[in-house]
Automatic annotation (TrEMBL):
Protein name (database record): Twin-arginine translocation pathway signal protein
Species: Prauserella sediminis
Lineage: Bacteria, Bacillati, Actinomycetota, Actinomycetes, Pseudonocardiales
Length: 152
């Protein structure tokens, strides 16, 4: 891996991560309504999650469904372009969004990636399980050795 590349050439991002409690798949515009409902119902909970607030997300005033769609298109493009990887967290069976995981380049010295995750307030019991499952997944299947887990 060079200092410019986020992931090595030829690396294929693993999908999906599946547990008894949730499953991850790449976030995209097809998740718009469920994603919007998930985070807008849990703004205070997300901002209290380790690693948040990061300054402006989620916006206290929310955002329109159209603006959320644009954000999901951007995340999907980042995934395609291999400059960041965002996964939606879904119920084990079904398409109900319960959270999100973000894997992006870091500004923290001596780290390769910053990992943030959140779950809906009504699924708060999954916060730690999700963070631990993602940490194990990163160690086993991703190329980064020095992970910034944002206080987890």
């Amino acid at each position: 891996m060079t200092s410019v590349a986020f992931v090595p050439d030829g690396f294929e991002p693993p999908t999906p991560l599946v547990t008894d409690s949730f499953r991850l798949e790449p976030l995209g515009p097809q998740h718009n309504e469920a994603d919007h409902a998930a985070w807008t119902s849990s703004i205070d909970h997300i901002r209290a999650t380790p690693g948040y607030p990061d300054g402006d997300w989620p916006p206290l005033e929310g955002m329109s469904l159209e603006a959320n769609h644009e954000d999901l298109v951007r995340h999907a493009a980042d995934f395609t372009n291999r400059v960041g990887f965002t996964y939606t967290v879904l119920e084990p069976a079904g398409d109900d969004v319960v959270g999100c995981v973000y894997l992006y380049p870091t500004s923290v010295p001596d780290r390769d990636v910053t990992v943030q995750s959140w779950v809906r307030a009504d699924r708060a019991e999954l916060d730690d399980r999700l963070a631990e499952a993602v940490a194990t997944w990163l160690a086993a299947e991703w190329p980064w050795q020095r992970v910034d887990r944002c206080g987890r």
